[in-house]
């Protein structure tokens, strides 16, 4: 895996003439479903501001 900040820069290189796909496949971290502490009652729901984060990106997507 190669890490970079920005699009590929193969425009004038020999690689550009190869006819191969070039681009960026972003990796995004998301919040999972909240898990209640086992010492609390099983039906103890998390607050809305916590539950609403499930499935959302941790950092903004560029």
Tell me about the biggest sheet?
none
Radius of gyration in whole Å, from Cα? Answer: 21 Å
**Estimated share of beta-strand residues:** under 5%
**SS-derived structural category:** little secondary structure
Helix % is under 10%
Average the pLDDT over all residues and give the rounded result: 83
**Straight-line distance between termini:** 19 Å
Low-confidence stretches: none
What is the number of strand segments? 0
How would you spell out the order of helices and strands?
A: H
> Which word captures the global form?
rod-shaped
Q: DSSP helix count?
A: 1
Structure summary:
This protein has one helix spanning 48-51. The protein is mostly loops.
Helix-strand blueprint:
Layout: H1 48-51
Describe this structure as you would to a colleague:
The protein has 62 residues and is largely without helices or strands. The protein has a domain of 27 residues. 6% of the residues lie in helices and 0% in strands. The protein is rod-shaped and about 65 Å long. It starts with 47 loop residues before the first helix and ends in an 11-residue tail after the last helix. The mean pLDDT is 83.
Descriptive terms for the model:
6% helix; rod-shaped
